Amino acid sequence: MTSLNPYLPDMATILETVQETHNIKTFRVRLDNPARMAAFTFQPGQVGQLSVFGVGESTFVINSPPTRMDYLQFSVMRAGEVTAALHGLVAGDKVGVRAPLGNHFPCESMKGKDIVFIGGGIGMAPLRTLLLYMLDNRADYGSITLLYGARSPDDMAFKAELPEWLSRKDMNTVLTIDREAPGWEHKVGLIPNVLRELAPSPEKAVAVTCGPPIMIKFTLQALKELGFGDEQIVTTLEKRMKCGVGLCGRCNIGDKYVCVDGPVFTCAELKTLPNEL
Amino acid sequence: METARFLPESSLTGWLAELASSADLLVPRRVGDAVVFAPYDPAVPLELSRDATTPPKACVFPACEELLRYVRTKDADDPSRTGLTVEETLPTGSRVVFGSRPCGTRGFTVYDRVFDAEGLRDPYYAARRAATAFVTLACREAGNACFCHWVGSGPADAQGSDVLLTQVPGGYVAQAVTDKGAALVRSPLMAPVGKHEGEARAAQAKALESLDSAQDVSPAREALLAAFDDMDFWTRMSAKCISCGACTYLCPTCYCFNVTDEAQGNEGSRLRTWDNCMSHQFTLEASGHNPRPTKAHRLKNRVGHKFSYYPGIHGGAIACCGCGRCIKSCPAGVDIREIVLAAMERASARPQEQAS
């Protein structure tokens, strides 16, 4: 954040939107100030606050990678007032952007490792940033496995990119849905069970996971069974946030503020925090 | 800085007029049966005999303030396009807060560490804080809910103040604490301090003696963490609480806030308002999930923040000034001192249990 006023958003224009699912919409935005856009830097995993003026602000991960700076992408699941207002916006509309906020995935220390992405539902958004970043720096990383699950084929976001991810020779993509659906040619089953079936080796590997709390709970169990240590599991948290700069008092877990000290934590780090997820 | 001078009682009104001539002067005044900080009016008497019902917090950190203002405008050439301008609305003006007690003023030092820190400066808070001078009145005796001495303070603590006034026979000893304060006591109405300096020291010592013996609450930092998962403990501690938030709104060190937008037609404001961490909605997420689902969780966070998490981040400084407003004003009789002591007692009864 280079602005002197941490509450003052950059004005941005929506270039394009993608209706990903019935309740997830993607926004591609550029900051209106060309110098600010040119100077914008961030790391995969960092988040931003999107403003709809007159309605409010909410926090979303920047899900385009820093290696592709034509625009900043945010994917928004409709859940409350601000997200409903965002869903009403179209190309050309203005939003406020306060970004980047928070910490990021440990991209440096992941170099040379085999990467296992496990994403559930809208939890795929932060993983997308890191996945594309790694694909753009492919030589720096070992094998890349993506396990992406959603309730049904209709609930799967980033559909336009799935064929490419499935066909790429330098990554292994596995898609799963909870229950059989006509025309579905991929896995059927809950993410943790499909993960057990895939059985990625924990050797020199890092698992990166994000999704609904119940999925995370059982995915962590599965990873543990597969031999992944707490330091080898990275996740990114979500909390209700307002200020985004560690002041307003909502997102703390003990003395850690998810908006500043997070949202990215290893399982080992999470275990040192009080139990208040 | 040891610039002490003597203000004769007969010159108090004159000095207040002087203070009011260059800045907005806020003083404790009786309104109904409450004492609140309000603009100085020579026709209305001050109420200095007891601490104010509401602390001076709002003088620097208003209950509601505008952060930004936005205006939408239609593009004259293409009415389907809407332009948007956003401007920050930084506070202006300067003020002197007269007659706050040491605890209420010292509360701002808790805010200073987070709102005006290296790497993050809240420009709204910082502007008001820099443009506000505190002329604090030392306490003459302890009230029944006072525990400033538990949290590293005392009845003549000058931390956060610019001038510390101590009442002595015939007037006040005015001790400048900062450069800003030195400028205020340079008034021609002030006399050399002389023998009054000794009288002030004696008055301060007497006030200190009126407090009961202090409890060392530094072990609470570990003890509260150790009790984190003991929800039976927190359910007992919070049983009386009705989640009304009186404690948070009246607290000189509570600073949780909300940010909301208010629209009027094509324009509107982004506002910051005090929030209440004791409310269920405070951490409620859009999905319906709530990481602090019960009042037991919320009270745990409130007490934990003040006596454990904040001290952990800020070199042991406790985020409580010991003013006792939360105790005096709680309609249900919750006493934060009892909770802190109970957590410490719980920890010493289980020495084998380490904070995780």
Notes on the protein architecture:
The complex is a heterodimer of chains A (277) and B (356). Chain A has 277 residues and is α/β, with parallel strands linked by helices. Chain A folds into 2 domains: 10-101, Elongation Factor Tu (Ef-tu), domain 3 (Beta Barrel), CATH 2.40.30; 114-236, 3-Layer(aba) Sandwich (Rossmann fold), CATH 3.40.50. Chain A has 7 helices and 15 strands. Chain A has helices spanning 34-39, 81-87, 124-136, 162-167, 191-198, 213-225, 267-271; strands at residues 10-19, 24-31, 47-52, 56-61, 72-77, 94-101, 114-120, 144-150, 172-177, 187-188, 205-210, 233-236, 252-253, 256-257, 264-266. In chain A, the strands form 3 sheets. Chain A has a 7-stranded mixed β-sheet with strand order 10-9-8-7-11-12-15, sandwiched between helices. In chain A, helix 3 links the parallel strand 7 and strand 8. The model of chain A has no long low-confidence stretch (mean pLDDT 96). Chain B is of the alpha+beta class. Chain B has 2 domains: 3-61 and 93-209, no CATH class; 220-349, no CATH class. Chain B is built from 12 helices and 14 strands. Chain B has helices at 12-22, 57-60, 102-115, 123-130, 179-185, 196-209, 220-226, 231-237, 246-249, 295-313, 325-328, 336-349; strands spanning 3-8, 24-31, 34-39, 64-74, 82-88, 95-100, 116-117, 120-121, 132-137, 163-168, 171-176, 191-192, 257-264, 267-274. In chain B, strands 3-2-6-9-10-11-1-12 form an 8-stranded mixed β-sheet. In chain B, strands 5-4-14-13 form a 4-stranded antiparallel β-sheet, with no helix packed on it. A two-stranded antiparallel ribbon of chain B has the order 7-8. In chain B, helix 8 (231-237) packs across helix 10. Chain B is flat, with a radius of gyration of 23 Å. The mean pLDDT of chain B is 95. At the A-B interface, strand 13 of A face strand 4, strand 5, strand 8, strand 13 and strand 14 of B.
